[in-house]
Amino acid sequence: MDLLNSPSFVQSVKLRRIIDLFHDEARGQSFALKMSQLFLDYSKQNISPDELSNLITWARDCRLNDSIDAMFSGEKINNTEERAVLHTLLRAPSEIKYAVLGEQAQEVLQTEVNMASIVDDVRQGKLTSCTGQKFTDVLVIGIGGSYYGLKVALSALSQYQTQHLNVHVLSNVDGQAVADKLSRLEAKSTLVIVISKTFTTQETLLNAHSVKQWMLDELKTDDAISRQWFAVSSNLTKATQFGINENSILPMWDWVGGRFSIWSAVGLPLALAIGNQNFEKFKLGAYEMDNHFQQADFSDNMPVLMALLGIWNRNVLGYHSLAVLPYEHSLRAFPGYLQQIDMESNGKSVSIDGEKLSWATAPIIFGQEGTNGQHAFMQLMHQSEDIIPADFIVSLKPSTKAYQEHHKVLVANCFAQSEALMQGVTLKQVEEELKSEETLSLTPHKVMKGNTPSNTLLLESITPESIGALFALYEHKIFVQGTLWQLNPFDQWGVELGKKLSSSVLDIINGKSTQSHLSTSSIQLINTFLDANK
Ligand SMILES: O=P(O)(O)OC[C@H]1O[C@](O)(CO)[C@@H](O)[C@@H]1O
Description:
Helix content: 40-55%
CATH topology of the largest domain: Rossmann fold
Pfam family, one: PGI
Strand order of the largest sheet: 1-2-11-10-8-9
Strand content: 5-15%
Structural class: alpha/beta
Active site: 344 (proton donor), 375, 499
Family: Belongs to the GPI family.
Shape: globular
CATH architecture of the largest domain: 3-Layer(aba) Sandwich
Bound molecules: 6-O-phosphono-beta-D-fructofuranose
Radius of gyration: 25 Å
CATH class of the largest domain: Alpha Beta
Subcellular location: Cytoplasm
Keywords: Cytoplasm, Gluconeogenesis, Glycolysis, Isomerase
């Protein structure tokens, strides 16, 4: 990755004041881009027009276009798992599905039809529980990619949800999380959906077994499982062995990565909440972003620009984190979702061919809904030595008609924070401000470094389309970065050791084995736990 990284050049860019780049009065306008319901302002990034066009040329020289075509045409770009990466197909029209998948497109389309009819039957009360009740609640059991996209989309589109059906998502294996969920449910009116691509994930299976036992204890008939349980998985055998009726299992395919799977039948709980039409609009918003991504020149291509600016901050300016700041209560889970989709995709140090990489890759992603972050970590972002680039996300229209004044204040804070992060306060400005002698000692404490780069993403309003486009925007940004970092963004081998060791620890805890290659620290912890639970 032969990016411009002569130390003197990098130093000159870091010392440059972003605010000085606005001497070019057209900067605000030229460093902004509108795509359907999204507007991206990247003018507060620490990059000049020439530097950006060099980056774009570099991306072209890296044959990024070929990589994009390879993904959309179904090449097995996930080489370590020998899989294609075709989550985009799930939101594409059927003719494109047939063009890429051939006959298998039939199965995909049939699954969409089956899913849509389940949604209608449940929402219209045609599908009822084993006691004949209409369903009032849906409990989703899944983790990681089988949970996060749903969690975000459900809260983001809460205003599009029917009042008759509450959707709950259970991911963590902590018994308290299970107890909390079940305490709000009645077995006779609860539909359960187990989502697991592999149907082997420890947390999901234990949660599913406990919920199954709860329902059997409550309803005392196996009918409950065959009538009220659905599964979404690529492992139909395991799902049926668990006891779910074969006709109630919706397939996933290995060419859909877990963290990119909300567009598949994994979206069933979302469609149940917002209806089939809104779910189609959610996919349509993403499909529009797919077309933009495939067709727009890189200089006007939102995912590519966000990816390149992220690489500029990471690999040229050496910034190690990215703060994701949604000034939108309904998007409060978005930073967590990005932690999975970005850090599980690009959190790697080996190339797609297995070579050790000599450059940095995925940034550390963190964030919180605005304005909460301002009263938490923004102090560090304004005054610590570390520069932490940020993505601000805000809707122009309030999600609720009430409290209009609140939205003005929210938006004002959002715009103010990106400006404050850029401007900062210099020593001279502080001194000028601090008129009186006695406060002069405060001067150094009030200096704010500024020069922190940021993007601001405006959504016209929170709609299924705009949220679909937002998801697809970040999916493609992450794919472009992984490609230009020459790694495989679609596997996650790094999660395996923890899973393996958790089984060894559990075996010791359950007295099934004493043999362990664990450290004396972990052995001590286990013994302390066992003593406490004697
Ligand atoms: O859908 P599954 O197979 O239960 O996996 C859940 C999650 O676990 C992971 O494999 C990580 O452990 C994620 O990639 C995946 O989304």
